[in-house]
């Protein structure tokens, strides 16, 4: 395993992280969390990501229980706040009230004394940014969180937070957690350049496009039983990739990976890690074997000719054409 600094902070995270969205506490049993986290530690992963909204706290509970046997100093733990955690009007968003209450609730569910990275899960245009940033700064001063960060904020929203934080002399955000994979590249245009200037690192989710970039789904063939795409309770994101045009390109990418003696998942992760502003790619896993396969992407260097061929293949899908 290799490790990268998270933005301009001194915190170092593994290039591959392990998340719990749509896995622990939802689509998989908790014993899968125990096995996968054990495999993660065995393979050098030190970064674990969850959120309060993942199955209304069940994701945090499963992650916390699985991490309990390990020394708290041996791992970096992140969670998030924004989405509704109840029916009351104040049980959502980025108000001071919701942030403070949910941070305490997350600490209880996780069974820890502090959270390493606390993400604003989305931008809240109903709350003054100053209120949100002051709440995060106070949580840091109290020692409940060590660093604050954002998730899926636009470049303009990140820039606004940076300017306000600087004016108010608040501790800066150190990371952004966006979707990023071969088919979802919007952050390359504005988010990454701004983040590089302002000292935020990317910890990206869905690096394998919900499993599409493992090659398990084939063009012209039925969706395999037992996969995420076959589960109507969790396939609301993956459906955007499930057409023969996209899967045809995936098949060609798999051939390219084979020519490099790589699995498609390893090629996809190595492609993400080519970006120096990416600190970690967060994978999901329900089996330890998936982790062992994915970590082999670490240290893989893709030649310029390979990167150009990947762009050519992706350009065949108009909706997901590479940025120019």
Automatic annotation (TrEMBL):
<comment type="similarity">
    <text>Belongs to the shaker potassium channel beta subunit family.</text>
</comment>
<dbReference type="InterPro" id="IPR023210">
    <property type="entry name" value="NADP_OxRdtase_dom"/>
</dbReference>
<keyword id="KW-0813">Transport</keyword>
<dbReference type="GO" id="GO:0005829">
    <property type="term" value="C:cytosol"/>
</dbReference>
<dbReference type="GO" id="GO:0034220">
    <property type="term" value="P:monoatomic ion transmembrane transport"/>
</dbReference>
<keyword id="KW-0407">Ion channel</keyword>
<dbReference type="InterPro" id="IPR005399">
    <property type="entry name" value="K_chnl_volt-dep_bsu_KCNAB-rel"/>
</dbReference>
<feature type="domain" description="NADP-dependent oxidoreductase">
    <location>
        <begin position="15"/>
        <end position="313"/>
    </location>
</feature>
<keyword id="KW-0521">NADP</keyword>
<keyword id="KW-0560">Oxidoreductase</keyword>
<dbReference type="InterPro" id="IPR036812">
    <property type="entry name" value="NAD(P)_OxRdtase_dom_sf"/>
</dbReference>
<protein>
    <submittedName>
        <fullName>Voltage-dependent potassium channel beta subunit</fullName>
    </submittedName>
</protein>
<dbReference type="Pfam" id="PF00248">
    <property type="entry name" value="Aldo_ket_red"/>
</dbReference>
<keyword id="KW-0406">Ion transport</keyword>
<dbReference type="GO" id="GO:0016491">
    <property type="term" value="F:oxidoreductase activity"/>
</dbReference>
């Amino acid at each position: 395993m290799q490790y990268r600094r998270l933005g301009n902070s001194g915190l170092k995270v593994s290039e591959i992280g392990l998340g719990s969205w749509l896995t622990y506490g939802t689509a998989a049993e908790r014993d899968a969390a125990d096995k996968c986290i054990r495999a993660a530690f065995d393979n050098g992963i030190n970064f674990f990501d969850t959120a309060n909204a993942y199955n209304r706290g069940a994701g945090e509970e499963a992650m916390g229980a699985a991490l309990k046997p390990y020394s708290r100093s041996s791992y970096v733990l992140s969670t998030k706040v924004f989405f509704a955690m109840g029916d009351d009007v104040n049980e959502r968003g980025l108000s001071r009230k919701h942030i403070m209450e949910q941070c305490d609730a997350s600490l209880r569910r996780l069974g820890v004394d502090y959270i390493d990275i606390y993400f604003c899960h989305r931008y809240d245009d109903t709350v003054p940014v100053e209120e949100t940033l002051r709440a995060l700064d106070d949580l840091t001063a109290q020692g409940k969180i060590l660093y604050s960060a954002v998730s899926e904020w636009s470049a303009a929203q990140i820039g606004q937070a940076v300017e306000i934080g600087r004016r108010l002399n608040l501790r800066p955000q150190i990371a952004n957690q966006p979707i990023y994979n071969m088919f979802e590249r919007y952050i390359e245009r504005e988010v990454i350049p701004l983040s590089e200037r302002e000292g935020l690192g990317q910890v990206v989710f869905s690096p394998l496009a919900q499993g599409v970039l493992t090659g398990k789904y084939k063009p012209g063939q039925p969706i395999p039983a037992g996969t995420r795409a076959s589960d109507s309770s969790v396939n609301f994101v993956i459906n955007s990739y499930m057409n023969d045009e996209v899967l045809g390109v995936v098949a060609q990418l798999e051939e390219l990976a084979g020519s490099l003696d790589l699995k498609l998942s390893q090629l996809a992760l190595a492609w993400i890690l080519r970006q120096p502003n990416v600190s970690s790619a967060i994978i999901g896993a329900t089996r330890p074997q998936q982790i062992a396969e994915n970590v082999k992407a670490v240290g893989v260097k893709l030649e310029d000719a390979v990167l150009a061929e990947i762009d050519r293949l992706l350009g065949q899908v108009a909706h997901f054409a590479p940025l120019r």
